[in-house]
Amino acid sequence: MITVAEARERLSTLYRRKLAAWSVRPFDATSPVALGLKPPTDRKAAADMPAVAAWLKQWSAVAVHGLQIDWEARRWPNTGTQSIPVRLAAQSPAALARFLNRGKEWELYRVRALRLQSLAPRDSEARDVFDPALARIIGKAAALPQQDFERVFHVLAWLTAHPDSGLYPRQLPVQGIDSKWLERHADIVRTLHVATGGDPGLGLLAPAKLYRVRFLDPRLAPVGMGELMASPDTLSRLDLSARTVLIVENLQTLLSLPELPGVVALHGGGYDVRWSAPIPWVAAANLLYWGDLDLDGLAILASLRSVRPDARSVMMDPSTLQRFAQLAVPHAKGLTRAAPSGLQPKEVEAYKLLRAQGGLRFEQERIPWDHALATLRTELGR
After folding, report:
1. How far apart are CA 294 and CA 332, in angstroms?
2. What is the pLDDT of residue 26?
3. Which of 71, 110, 164, 263 could be a cystine partner for 203, CB 3.0 to 4.6 Å?
4. What's the domain count of the chain?
5. What's the pLDDT tens digit per position in 330-379?
6. Of 290, 314, 298, 289, whose CA–CA distance to 351 is shortest?
7. Residue 152 DSSP one-character state
8. What global pTM score does this model have?
9. Last residue of a domain, one of 101, 136, 169
10. pLDDT for 78
11. What dihedral angle (degrees, nearest 10) is formed by the CA atoms of 348, 350, 351, 352?
């Protein structure tokens, strides 16, 4: 015998799993959610009639609109004919939610789903794209305070009407939002905008990312500027003839570099290291990379080699790691990854050594500076 409490527990699991999908596309009486109630046999009923009577009383008290309980007459030799509940069927998600005492939650999900669906194209093919996207984020949309939900709706409505505005996020003419608000709610906004056929960038302009550059040879410095921050597009317009471009991973290392003839130094940007590859004067120069001597640093080097196979590394080899191992710290991230393609034999050896030692982080700044500069000058002189 399944009690009312047990039925609620079982159906709650299904409800939680299906809530998002149902709020977007509810089921109806043609495909109800049903649960068999496992009525007792004659023998079991005869063995414990008080329990059966309590069970019948429980189900007799259930009265929820849209919730159907099927009763059947059963003739038991020991107790005579009884009308017993055999099946519970919810005709709609709303009815199921009411039975589970979650009616307000369902109403919130459904009302917000309908509101957002009003922004979608009407044809069935478009809805087949939009509705699954809405189901993915409806939980987040339902969790928003009402004021923020209204802002999401109005931002989406504005973006739909102006798909290629060319504005910056702060310029959006929607009351109550700023760029920080858009960042916090980007997942909902972008998911639904793309699902209506919109641009993943929302048709908005993004400020160009700026990178730090140091001209270690004063003769290469544009208008005497030894250092600047600029976008790749701006840097591409410089007319330089650097012999070597040195990419370093950490800012403090970049700032500590002395004058070096024919050298321009760039801040790498981590896994964004390939940003400099299209710049003409970078492409024409020898390229030297000096990053952290850990699994991430070597993976970044491999990524750089995917666009600059000729890039050389410095102080990213086993001998450097073994010489200064006492300066490294434990770092177990990425231990399951195999050495990435693009590394040279000595670099692969360093990668395997790092894994064998349980993972280490050896930041480039930890190498004694006198040794680092001497090694760097030797490599630049090759």
Report:
1. 10
2. 94
3. 164
4. 3
5. 776 655 677 889 999 999 999 998 888 777 788 888 899 999 999 999 99
6. 298
7. H
8. 0.66
9. 101
10. 67
11. 90
